[in-house]
Amino acid sequence: MNPKVALFEKIMADAIREVFAQEQFPTLYDPARYILSLGGKRLRPLLTLMGADLFGSAVDKAINAALAIEIFHNFTLLHDDLMDRADMRRGQPTVHKKWNANSAILSGDAMVIEAYRYIAKVPPASLPVIMDLFSTTAMQICQGQQLDMDFEKRMDVSEAEYIEMIRLKTAVLIGCALKMGALIGGAEPRDADCLYEYGINIGLAFQLKDDLLDVYGDPRTFGKMIGGDILCNKKTYLLIKALKNSGEQQKKMLLLWLSASEFDSAEKIRFVKNVYDELNLKVITGNLIEKYYLASLDCLTSIRVSEDRKKDLMEFSENLMYREK
Amino acid sequence: MNPKVALFEKIMADAIREVFAQEQFPTLYDPARYILSLGGKRLRPLLTLMGADLFGSAVDKAINAALAIEIFHNFTLLHDDLMDRADMRRGQPTVHKKWNANSAILSGDAMVIEAYRYIAKVPPASLPVIMDLFSTTAMQICQGQQLDMDFEKRMDVSEAEYIEMIRLKTAVLIGCALKMGALIGGAEPRDADCLYEYGINIGLAFQLKDDLLDVYGDPRTFGKMIGGDILCNKKTYLLIKALKNSGEQQKKMLLLWLSASEFDSAEKIRFVKNVYDELNLKVITGNLIEKYYLASLDCLTSIRVSEDRKKDLMEFSENLMYREK
User: Fold this and answer.
1) Which of A160, A179, B56, B303 is the most buried (most CB within 10 A)?
2) Count of other CB atoms within 10 angstroms of residue B85
3) Mean pLDDT to the nearest integer, B165-192
4) Is A272 helix (H, G, I), strand (E, B) or coil?
């Protein structure tokens, strides 16, 4: 791995360990410390540091913003897991399973507030614009989660609606993470906006890649069970596309599987995957990922810093695109 | 009613109606608009305006802070009702009853973010200190709610612990509402702190009065059912005091009633109220309310503005103390 990115990862891992470290009230803060300790890619805070670094700024100035992003992201996981009734997260029980629903609600609330406390610590000159960006993004994420839940009850979600949902639920936080870094790093507004758009495109590609890996990932490297989205009827890009592109008989069967309350898991995954195969959805989804990936590179190109400085981000996003987990 | 306070009430009622008024996403924002429309005393935002007015400032400067306080307060009601499984709020179904638990969680989250958006609109010179005060207060309220839930499982809550819990859950937001008004109104830090302490004392007295009215309120004026706290074993000041002051036999019977899963409501209320009567808790609680009320007046006295300016707040808090609902 790139030694600079490895250093940034270390900086963030150390900083995240300090969050809530001094707090008493174990019933309130243990669930928050727990979800923060589960790890994950730490993608978003890393992007904040890389955003600052892109404009030649020392990254320490961006650590508080990066922490705010990571705390907020983990808050959304905590509340989303409760709303989605998910039992496991990163191979461990979710907070509402390990504690209970009330703990998940209240500890999540405390995390939102803590995120804003870190936002308040960004360099004062950047505070108004960072605060505005953060709140706008946070609200969009709520809208994205609401759309995602609304989609559960619908069988006629269009591709455009789906892309809008993942833009709100996933991509805007990646854009926000990068843009905050850029603003703190002294970028001019136009360049900060380009980096935001880069993040949006990378974020869309990232989520579509997630959808794809759930079906076509390699079980040995993926880390999660293949077909998890299929089993819970998650409206992924592939399912939406399948509902749209399938023939009459195929669609009837697909809807039958989606409405079945008792079934053999392996059999359901096999059936749905077979429909995806017949409709060529691995290639179609791959092409769309490529489209957003290329669009992200265009955004990066238009940023007015030396090409040399952009290498880390390019390498990083390439790794994200060609990841197997 | 005091015409100035009536004007402030009108200003806030109009401003609250505008919150989320432009937002699409009915599934996300309807629950938030609903709980905000249920009314209530609008005590906290009114105190923000009165805090600004106390220092001779125009109150419009304080409207955004007042809205942040009211939105945050309603967010806590929304999530607390869900955590407490309360069916009714102000004579109407609670959000998780009218919609569902997920709506209550996510709309509540959106309200926290919206509260911060209004905080971001306070006069820039006050923003860092207001933001800090708001986040500190918001976090304390989470701690207070956690304590309240922790207390549900305990029969040995001390009076001091109870006072600390209501300080966190209720009093700090009243202190914060007033102090924000003072700061925006140009008060010196020392005076703003005195007004905060005034709010803490008023807030404690206010909650204790709530506890008292649940048992000794006049059913014709109280608006809610008498004995609601008794029926759900709520650890009010009176119950905590009763568990501590009761004799051996009395306590045994009290614990029996608290652990009963099937009982006649009227009979349970009659029994518990009788214990309170025997232990003279109406007078004891009344004395404690008086103590905090007098302490609040001391705080008000030490603020360096003309006595004339303090009249509205004095009258207002007197009304709160001698209210029958």
Assistant:
1) A179
2) 12
3) 98
4) helix
- Cβ–Cβ under 8 Å, residues B86 and B148: no
Best of B131, B135, B148 to disrupt the A interface (most A CBs within 10 Å) is B135
What total number of domains does chain B contain? Answer: 1
pTM, rounded to two decimals: 0.97
Percent of chain A with pLDDT over 70: 100
Domain that holds residue B43: 3-321
Helix (H/G/I), strand (E/B), else coil: B73: helix
Taking the CA of residue B85 and the nearest CA in chain A, the distance in Å comes to 10
Strand, helix or coil at B93? strand
Whether B113 sits inside 8 A of A138 (CB atoms) is yes
Maximal C-alpha separation, chain A: 61
CB within 8 Å of B190: residues ≥ 6 apart: none
Q: The tokens of B116 are what?
A: 């911060």
The most distant pair of C-alpha atoms in chain B lies apart, rounded to whole Å, by 61
> Residue type for B242, please?
A
Q: Which of B39-43, B167-171, B172-176, B242-246 has the lowest mean pLDDT?
A: B39-43
Collapsing DSSP states into helix, strand and coil, what is residue A155? coil
Interatomic CA distance for residues A277 and A216, integer angstroms: 10
Tokens at B181, concatenated: 């008004």
CB-based burial, B242-254: b 16+ in 10 Å, e otherwise:
bbebbeeebbeeb
Any residues with CB less than 8 A from the CB of A11 and at least 6 apart, and which? A49, A59, A63
Rounded CA-CA distance A7/A46 in Å is 10
Question: Number of C-alpha atoms within 13 angstroms, CB side, residue B268?
Answer: 19
Residues of A in contact with B120 (CB under 8 A): 128, 131-132, 135
Structure tokens at B227: 């004995």
| A285, A238 contact by CB (below 8 A) | yes
Band the pLDDT of A325: cuts 50, 70, 90: confident
Per DSSP, what are the bridge partners of residue B92?
B89
Q: Which residues 177-236 on chain B approach chain A with CB closer than 8 angstroms?
A: none
Beta bridge pairs of residue B88: B93
Average pLDDT over residues B317-325: 83
Residues of chain B neighbouring A139 (CB-CB closer than 8 A): 110, 113-114, 117
B252 neighbors B204 (Cβ within 8 angstroms): no
Q: How far is CA B48 from CA A183, B114, B192, in A?
A: 33, 18, 12
DSSP string, B99-142: S-HHHHHHHHHHHHHHHHHHHTTS-GGGHHHHHHHHHHHHHHHH
Please give the mean pLDDT across all residues of chain B: 95
For residues B131 and B180, is the Cβ–Cβ distance under 8 A? no
Q: Which of A79, A138, A146 sits opposite B27 (nearest CB)?
A: A146
Asked whether the beta carbons of B163 and B204 are under 8 A apart, the reply is yes
The residue with greater pLDDT, B221 or A192, is A192
Give kind and range of the element (H or E) at residue A89: strand A88-89
Residue B99 sits in a domain whose CATH number is 1.10.600.10
B2-to-B5, B167, B206, B269, B315 alpha-carbon distances in Å: 5, 28, 20, 37, 9
Query: ipTM score of the complex?
Result: 0.96
Task: Determine the pLDDT at residue A323.
Answer: 80
- Cβ neighbours of B229 (radius 10 Å): 20
Which residues are CB-contacts of B40 (< 8 A; sequence separation ≥ 6)? B90
